[in-house]
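Why should sequence recovery work at all? Because a backbone constrains its sequence more than one might expect. Tight turns favour small or flexible residues, buried strands favour hydrophobic ones, and helices have their own preferences. The token representation captures these environments compactly. In the example below, the structure is given first.
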């Protein structure tokens, strides 16, 4: 069949879609149908970009509605991907250019005749109606027509960057990537933004990168940071260093780090950070912080199958005063307190903190291990099944907490899929986890390396890294 498809080639700009299905041998009814044609063995031109959704493993559909939805989405995405090829995109661009020029030739002579040779806008109307209401309606219609003609003229001239900033011609999509530093010579392990700069952990040490400026070394390569968070509002830098039994959680004051950079002090090494270690975090392989830290910062540290909950009380008034920064110690370790330990059945691979609606004994921890996502109550340590992954092999990517009107939701990312689950208010100490109309899911063309979030007002735009 594939050899037959490889011989089909048209001299016209057409889009062909082929789907090969079969019924398993011995089946007497159409209760099970298999589909072949994953992206690796389906027939398509090299110029067609990747499109999903990918076939499940194994590629067997037992539900007719799911199979119908899969086929429709696959065909729609394939048609959209085909339109992005040079064969179609160049012809579309040429047709659009001809259409704009045709509109320009039809409308611009009338524009010059009706408006540019007149003194006032009231003289634009060729026949002024006698009724006041009809006259106002005619003025508004003529105003819109003249505005569209002027906009068209500006577009044809190529001077429409400012005027068309909100149109699809010039507007960038929210997920469009932006280059911060080209030809970076080191391998990036992790990073976080610090003001207008970027604090990056590399194989050569920790570097502070600013656009158009040479990078500044903050720590040397003896300090290998695997995970970090820059909390400017709390004047904190939290980092997980090394690996295995030597792994620790370090906390720094951003003001002290900034002072060392400005005074060009000696670059700090691993051995200069002994006072910044949280001692009970030895051997940790993962940590997470709450993204909505108001009056209390919460940190959960995973040490094999044990979770360590740490909090820090802070006063915004003290943080904003320079005198308090000078009087406080350089290491903020003493400001952290250990709350409790929680034991899990397996070491977590992905972990995130979920804020409860009241913040009083209803905060949760979302953990991923084996083939499932669980919610763990911070106060009692009880766990609840949130989502089970129906797959032989699971590649956990991320669990992102999202909040709307005080209610929490989780975007569970694994393999090619991102599944959104709503976590409802708690009832008697346990969350209400049940299917909802708010739940949805979407798929990527490739398995992402990491997924983060870009917070606007609404909606949520996922940001991924392959």
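From this structural description, the recovered sequence reads:
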């Amino acid at each position: 069949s594939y050899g037959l498809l490889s011989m089909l080639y048209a001299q016209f700009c057409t889009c062909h879609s082929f789907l090969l299905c079969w019924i398993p041998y011995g089946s007497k009814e159409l209760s099970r149908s298999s589909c072949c044609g994953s992206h690796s063995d389906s027939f398509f031109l090299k110029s067609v970009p990747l499109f999903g959704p990918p076939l499940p493993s194994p590629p067997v559909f037992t539900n007719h509605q799911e199979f119908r939805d899969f086929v429709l989405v696959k065909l729609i995405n394939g048609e959209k991907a085909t339109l992005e090829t040079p064969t179609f995109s160049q012809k579309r661009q040429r047709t659009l250019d001809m259409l704009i020029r045709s509109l320009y030739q039809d409308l611009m002579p009338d524009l010059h005749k009706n408006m540019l040779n007149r003194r006032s806008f009231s003289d634009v109307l060729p026949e002024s109606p006698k009724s006041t209401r009809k006259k106002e309606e005619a003025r508004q219609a003529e105003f819109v027509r003249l505005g569209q003609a002027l906009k068209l003229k500006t577009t044809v001239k190529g001077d429409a960057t400012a005027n068309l900033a909100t149109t699809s011609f010039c507007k960038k999509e929210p997920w469009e990537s932006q280059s911060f530093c080209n030809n970076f010579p080191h391998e990036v392990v992790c990073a976080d933004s610090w003001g207008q700069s970027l604090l990056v952990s590399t194989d050569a040490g920790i570097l502070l990168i600013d656009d158009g400026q040479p990078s500044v070394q903050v720590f040397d390569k003896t300090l290998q940071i695997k995970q970090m968070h820059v909390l400017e509002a709390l004047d904190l830098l939290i980092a997980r260093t090394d690996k295995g039994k030597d792994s620790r959680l370090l906390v720094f004051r951003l003001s002290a780090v900034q002072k060392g950079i400005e005074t060009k002090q000696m670059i700090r090494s691993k051995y200069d950070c002994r006072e910044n270690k949280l001692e009970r975090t030895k051997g940790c392989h993962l940590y997470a912080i709450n993204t909505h830290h108001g009056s209390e910062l919460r940190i959960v540290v995973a040490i094999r199958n044990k979770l360590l909950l740490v909090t820090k009380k802070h006063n915004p008034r003290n943080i904003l005063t320079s005198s308090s920064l000078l009087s406080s110690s350089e290491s903020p370790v003493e400001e952290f307190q250990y709350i409790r330990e929680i034991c899990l059945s397996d070491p977590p691979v992905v972990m995130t903190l979920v804020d409860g609606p009241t913040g009083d004994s209803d905060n949760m921890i979302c953990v991923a291990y084996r083939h499932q996502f669980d919610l763990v109550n911070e106060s009692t340590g009880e766990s609840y099944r949130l989502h089970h992954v129906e797959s032989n092999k699971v590649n956990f990517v991320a669990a992102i907490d999202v909040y709307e009107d005080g209610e929490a939701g989780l975007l569970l990312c694994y393999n090619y899929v991102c599944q959104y689950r709503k976590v409802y208010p708690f009832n008697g100490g346990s969350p209400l986890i049940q299917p909802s109309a708010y739940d949805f899911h979407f798929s990527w063309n490739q398995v992402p390396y990491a997924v983060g979030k870009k917070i606007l007002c609404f909606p949520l735009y996922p940001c991924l890294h392959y």
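A few observations help interpret the result. Residues 86-116 form the longest helix (31 residues).
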